[in-house]
Amino acid sequence: MVNGSRIDTNRESPGGIESLGIAVDGQGEEISLLDLLLVLARHWRLIVLGSGVSTLLAIVLALHLPNRYTATAVIMPPQKSQSGAAALLAGQLGALGGVGAGGSMAEVLLGLLQAHEVENTLIQRFHLMKQYRVKTWEDAQKILEMKLVATVDKKSTLIKLTYTDNYPIQAAQISNAAVAALEHLLSHLAVTKASQKRVFFEHQVQETQAQLNRDESDLNRIGARAGWIEVYPMAGEVAASNANIRAEIASREVELSALGLSETPNNPDYLRVQQRISSLKAKLMSQPTLDQPKNLKALSPEGTAYLQKYRDVAFEQEVLKLMEQQYETAKVDEAKDYPEIQIIDLAVVPEKPSGPKRLLIAVGGAFVGLFFFVVLAFIIDSMRHAAEDPEAAEKIRQIKNSFWS
């Protein structure tokens, strides 16, 4: 007895030879292995012919499938300042590609490869929407992600970037273009402390330059309206001196804000800049002002407005000069600390196709055809036996009528 069934070895065939059979308890029905072979023997022509046709179709299909070529580029993730850069970049990207704040730089780069900027650059450059025969960017991105595969070697941390295409030259071109697009994207992201400072000071320079242009325009307009105005030596000296101090205070405050991006208030550099700001503010308080009568002779309202705007222009000019100095310093620091991708191997045009696996397709087609037609043979045999049984024939008739009525 095995799982409610029993092996019957007592049944004798007409020739006196014992055969194995499986009997179902309570029903007295028995399926003999010889019966199964008999079904296969009855329909051997169908099985052989059907399997042969399916094998032939699989061979024809395999021969007509276009060759696929795979080109591979190998890059090394940044090694210098790796942990800090990866943490900062992962924080900027959020959940892109499943990379968390604690991901390695290699994992961050894998996430960047699926960024829309990288994918859309490749799609647009190589006209992939037309090649993929799709109408939307999203569909083209999905196909590109299937063809462009990046893997990381856990031991060496090298990244292999492969692209599979029907054309070997284009496969190599797209692999190398993906590396270039990744480098371009990485160059625009602030992935280190120095990069963040550079971006910060770059914005400050732009804002200060814009404000200076507005103040100079206002100064020229006031001067043109009021005619020639003499800036008295003492007043001009006071305005320039105060502007220089105010500009340095503003510059130091900007520097303090930049340090706050990556340092704590207890950092020695942070405390040093704070102390410098305090001393400059004290110095500014001790300076004479334009409001003191001894420093400013009687001027017309136009002259007073001109002098006030002159002071603003002097202030903005000094601020701009200091901001540009900070900006240049930040660029130098960024160049020293920038996490560059090192290209180990550029993709070369593949000489041999990587697919399709024609032998595997032919063998697989043969097995699928054999299985299908063996099952079909048993179905045909079962239908034949059912047609000989009046009760089963009636049920089959009712089933047909229910579908065709």
Description:
65% of the residues lie in helices and 9% in strands. By secondary structure, it is α+β, with helices and mostly antiparallel strands. The chain has 4 domains: 1-31, no CATH class; 43-65 and 356-404, no CATH class; 69-192, Bacterial polysaccharide co-polymerase-like (2-Layer Sandwich), CATH 3.30.1890; 193-337, YheA-like fold, CATH 1.20.1500. Strands 5-6-4-7 form a 4-stranded antiparallel sheet. It has a 3-stranded antiparallel sheet with strand order 1-2-3. Helix 9 runs antiparallel to helix 10. It is elongated. The model is unreliable at 1-29, 81-103, 228-234 and 291-297 (pLDDT under 50).
Write the layout of secondary structure elements.
Elements: E1 5-8, E2 21-24, E3 29-32, H1 33-42, H2 44-64, E4 69-76, H3 82-93, H4 105-113, H5 116-125, H6 128-132, H7 137-147, E5 148-152, E6 159-165, H8 168-187, H9 193-226, H10 233-260, H11 268-286, H12 301-337, E7 342-345, H13 358-388, H14 390-404
Antiparallel strand pairs: 1-2, 2-3, 4-6, 4-7, 5-6
Helix pairs in contact: 2-13, 3-4, 5-7, 5-8, 9-10, 9-12, 10-11, 10-12
Q: How many H/I helices?
A: 14
Strands of the widest sheet, in order across it, are 5-6-4-7
Which fold name corresponds to the CATH topology of the largest domain?
A: YheA-like fold
Structural shape: elongated
**N- to C-terminal distance:** 46 Å
Helicity range: 55-70%
Please tell me how large the radius of gyration is: 41 Å
Largest sheet: 4 strands, antiparallel
Mean pLDDT: 75
